[in-house]
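Input (structure):
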């Protein structure tokens, strides 16, 4: 037998089965090797935290207010470059006519009011380009459109940053008036010129006035003044005509009444 003792040599030879068994015991298996400790993934967590911080900074009230100021400055720069007042002297481009021209003018009117272009100039241009009736409708559409855009921008980008700054007596009084009596206050501001159009829009946006009272008061309160300017623009070629003179009187009278009302209300605002 293979595993019998070699009597002549004096040594015993191990069998192959015993050698294989010893080798298997000597070599550790994969199941006996302890697993390596898991290395935590640091990079995804760090990148997620950085992204969250950047998002908070970008969406913070002051970042949104800065974006609003940049947008308004860019719009004002575009107005200075393109000079929309040339429409009054050079007329409307001949490529546009009819309803398309009125729609384009209404959209441009709204954007120009957001960029601080005075409404009287735009109202005169509407009357000069489209006549009294169509000019009035086009100017009113642009007025409501521009007021809505300015109100939305101010409410979305500026309200959270500016409301904590309402600490002065006049600012608190104006904010309380617009927040509690939004429709009535905006009607007065539109009927009696004195507060610039863009200033009334952004003041209303910072207050707690609702969308519907703001837009409705803007549409109704802007009719008399807009109609007077549209008629004046349509009749500008004949400044001695009765229609032109009546339109100019309708422009001057609300301004005078608004000045008197503001002068009499100054003590009431100081007392608040």
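Output (sequence):
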């Amino acid at each position: 037998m293979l595993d019998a003792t070699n009597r002549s040599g004096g040594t015993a030879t191990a069998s192959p089965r015993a050698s294989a068994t010893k080798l298997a015991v000597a070599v550790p298996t994969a199941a006996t090797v302890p697993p390596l400790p898991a290395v935590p993934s640091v990079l995804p967590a760090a990148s997620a935290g950085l992204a969250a911080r950047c998002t908070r900074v970008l969406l913070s009230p002051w970042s949104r207010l800065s974006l609003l100021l940049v947008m308004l400055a860019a719009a004002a720069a575009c107005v200075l470059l393109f000079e929309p007042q040339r429409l009054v002297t050079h007329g409307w481009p001949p490529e546009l006519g009819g309803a398309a021209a009125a729609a384009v003018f209404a959209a441009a009117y709204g954007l120009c009011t957001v960029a601080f272009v005075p409404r009287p100039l735009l109202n005169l241009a509407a009357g000069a380009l489209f006549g009294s009736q169509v000019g009035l409708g086009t100017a009113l559409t642009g007025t409501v459109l521009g007021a809505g855009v300015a109100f939305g921008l101010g409410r979305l980008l500026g309200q959270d940053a500016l409301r904590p700054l309402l600490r002065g007596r006049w600012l608190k009084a104006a904010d309380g008036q617009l927040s509690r009596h939004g429709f009535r206050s905006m009607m007065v501001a539109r009927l009696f010129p004195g507060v610039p159009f863009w200033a009334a829009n952004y003041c209303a946006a910072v207050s707690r006035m609702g969308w519907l009272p703001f837009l409705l008061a803007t549409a109704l309160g802007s009719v008399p003044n807009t109609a007077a300017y549209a008629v004046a623009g349509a009749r500008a070629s004949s400044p001695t005509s009765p229609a032109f003179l009546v339109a100019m009187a309708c422009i001057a009278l609300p301004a005078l009444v608004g000045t008197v009302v503001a002068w009499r209300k100054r003590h009431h605002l100081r007392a608040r």
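Notes: The chain is about 75% helix and 0% strand. The longest helix spans residues 132-162.
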